[in-house]
Specification:
The structure is a homodimer of 425-residue chains.
Chain A lengths: L20 H8 L3 E5 L2 E4 L1 H20 L3 E2 L5 E3 H6 L2 H4 L5 E3 L5 E4 L4 H9 L10 E10 L14 E11 L2 H21 L6 E7 L6 E8 L5 E6 L4 E4 H5 L6 H7 L12 E15 L3 H4 L2 E3 L5 E3 L1 E8 H11 L1 E2 L2 E2 L10 E5 L5 H16 L4 E4 L5 H11 L3 E5 L7 E5 L5 E4 L1 H9 L2
Parallel strand pairs in A: 3-7, 9-12, 19-20, 19-21
Antiparallel strand pairs in A: 1-2, 4-6, 5-6, 7-8, 8-16, 9-10, 10-13, 11-12, 11-13, 13-16, 14-15, 17-18, 21-22, 22-23
Helix pairs in contact in A: 1-10, 2-6, 2-10
């Protein structure tokens, strides 16, 4: 993409009320635009990142047997009344249609998927099933101040699993734990992410969250650095006596490895996995006939990852004073080619040729061919944060000045070497 | 995909109130599920079709220079008040948030994109720009009875172009006409689709619709078979004297080629293109400095295609008494492999081997490996409508019985011939 054609420009001015680091950087660099609190447009650069995150998640969930569907956002009131959440779910947007009926805007989809599953699951032969979507959720968050970390509308991958028994659920639950680790590794945040015990609700003792350490986080977690397990502070506050963890950690002992040293950190929940049991299958009567001919309730699990939040978390954990530092896997482009002497015909022709050669080598490249000063271009490049910067100027002659965004030193390389370097990762 | 693992099953029973052919077939075959009037879930088979339609549209719009973004569905009331459409747009869903502010659910996105464009367009150097998204729209249709042809929530490709002058708009408008023809050709409905003159609004004499002839259509069009131009009946009713077309067609003459024969048909609008002029740039003050240093209004065009509607239209125009007949380009799978003797080990092993070989040849195949009768499998296959049926039974021996969905005769071919046939289109 030629930057002279790109819809967006970087900007220095940003609303003083924008306190969040991720939103500030993403807005300044032209990845997103803020329409209202917690409501963002993804601009061309931002949508490229979001699509890469989406593809990573889709690949890993498909690998774990997921079948993708797409459920609607407009939900009839009756579905939410069946589970009691029309009243109890505290961030539900509600509206009335011209047909005088009431609707919720989907904040989660158990109320839609479970009655749908009932049409297709009736026998043990129909189990297990793993159904997911990547779809826009709406939540009426009154305090949406953390940029992409907490939106009022956001993309979510929500996976729901249907099982004949608890044993099968438990084994799939472990499989999804592995899939989540692969996703967070590929997105570049595994090192700062901890499997964290959290309140589990009705069915299991705990649920598991994946918490990424960042000062922008809304949760506090106790990390055992020895076994890398963490515990969400909310458990410690919980008065429910089924939590032996509470006592142990209150006594200063890791519930997993008995280590006595904890680190207390702010963190953001980038994923969660829940054992639901029959909590949602019961109100909708989702049952199956087992292989002995007996009718039994279908057992469920659910597993979420917010895509916008993941993107915001990557920015919170990968930046410096000059801008964003994207991991290669989700960067909007693989390389940022800068032409620093746009007025000089010979140098421009050389840069154009290099740009076209990179495109022919299937390399995703943003080409800053604008008639602007070297200073502006270098600053913009740091702000946008593409992992590899390629500079063409009067000084580079036959070569290209190559610098990784995350390093200080640059080096001169030939075009062939650059292509090999990018292609081989 | 093994059909024994597929989430959905076909069904014979469908609500008696479902009058629409497209919804009936798509629900019975397991492509979509109806949640409420005009609100559908896309099931695994349906989502595959939707994704193929989406990819065709994306490729052609990118080819026409489009830059993709993703705008939100929650729109602040103030944006819609600026254009007067908070009151005048008659199918706008409205709701109130916990912040006491009012929001519209996006029915179209001029109100969001124009103020956003103002942040990035200020000079003639920033023009033209072609910005689009593929995103969920909401419209509070009180009568949503045509299945996927008129939803209350649906996916739409909406493209907006920004120009320095009318001449540039006119030339891009023609470019998009060509892109639309390519899209409808690739989706398999070009032959039944007519470029149709329709009411144009404030800026141009007419807008253009792409209307596909089907008895399920909501519009009536007058088709000149000689030059393939059509005129929407709404123009004839229009009392606006700027339409010379009205007089000519009332006098029985085609406005394009003076032909005097018309065919009157029901049709559905599968795409529309509009010259907006400064209608939306004016209220938001979207201006630019031209190359003479003078401030001028940005001139706009907008161009829509509804994805769900396109899918419904394909079904309405491609079916027989046994089910859907998908065009190859958007079929959920390229081939439907049926194992008709699932209990016989030798035949099952042969079918499994063929299935795996097809997968290794990168052929998308749905494999009906279920323990069901041949009659059920053949009926399901016709209903689902995958273009090529491959039957393995006790009779086919070393070969495969190959039948195109749209033809009656079958033939026996070897596996290599089948792969070659599919791979070479």
């Amino acid at each position: 993409m030629r930057q002279s054609d790109l819809f967006t420009k970087t900007t220095k001015t940003i609303s003083a009320e924008e306190k969040s680091v991720n939103a500030s950087l993403l807005i300044r660099a032209g990845f997103v635009d803020k329409l209202a609190a917690g409501i963002y447009t993804f601009l061309p650069l931002g949508l490229r990142v979001l699509n890469k995150i989406e593809n990573i998640i889709r690949e890993e969930i498909n690998e774990a047997g997921g079948q993708e569907i797409l459920m609607p956002a407009l939900h009839p009131k009756e579905n939410w009344q069946k589970t009691g959440r029309w009243e109890s779910f505290d961030a539900l947007f509600k509206l009335k249609g011209g047909d005088k009926k009431e609707y919720a805007l989907g904040a989660t989809h158990e109320e839609i998927l479970v009655p749908l599953a009932k049409k297709h699951i009736s026998s043990y032969k129909d189990l297990p099933r793993y159904i997911y979507q990547i779809q826009t959720k709406f939540r009426d968050e009154v305090r949406a101040k953390s940029g992409l970390l907490r939106g009022r509308q956001f993309l979510m991958k929500d996976l729901y699993s249907f099982h004949a028994d608890e044993k099968d659920l438990n084994s799939y639950y472990e499989k999804i734990k592995d899939a989540y680790w692969k996703i967070f590794e590929r997105a570049g945040i595994k090192d700062k992410t901890y499997l964290t015990l959290a309140s589990g609700g009705t069915f299991s003792k705990y649920s598991h969250e994946f918490q990424t350490v960042t000062s922008a986080g809304e949760d506090t977690i106790y990390i055992c650095e020895k076994c890398r397990l963490a515990v969400n502070k909310e458990i410690l506050k919980d008065e429910n006596p089924v939590y032996p963890v509470r006592n142990r950690i209150s006594n200063g002992v890791c519930p997993e490895c008995q280590n006595e040293k904890f680190k207390v950190e702010k963190a953001i929940e980038v994923g969660n996995i829940f054992k639901l049991g029959a909590k949602y299958s019961a109100p909708f009567g989702l049952k199956f006939i087992d292989n002995a001919g007996k009718e039994r309730a279908v057992i469920m699990g659910c597993y979420g990852i917010g895509l916008d939040r993941l993107m915001g978390t990557v920015v919170e954990t990968n930046n410096d004073e000059n801008g964003i530092i994207w991991p290669k896997s989700i960067a909007p482009y693989q390389a940022h080619l800068l032409l620093l002497a746009p007025q000089e015909r010979e140098i421009r022709e050389k840069a154009d040729l290099i740009y076209n050669t990179l495109l022919k080598s299937d390399i995703e490249v943003l080409y800053d061919d604008r008639n602007l000063s070297a200073g502006i271009k270098l600053k913009d490049s740091d702000l946008i944060g593409i992992p590899l910067r390629l500079v063409i100027s009067g000084k580079t002659r036959e070569n290209i000045e190559v610098k990784e965004r995350k390093r200080k030193e640059a080096k001169l390389l030939g075009l062939g070497e650059v292509i090999e370097m990018i292609t081989n990762g």
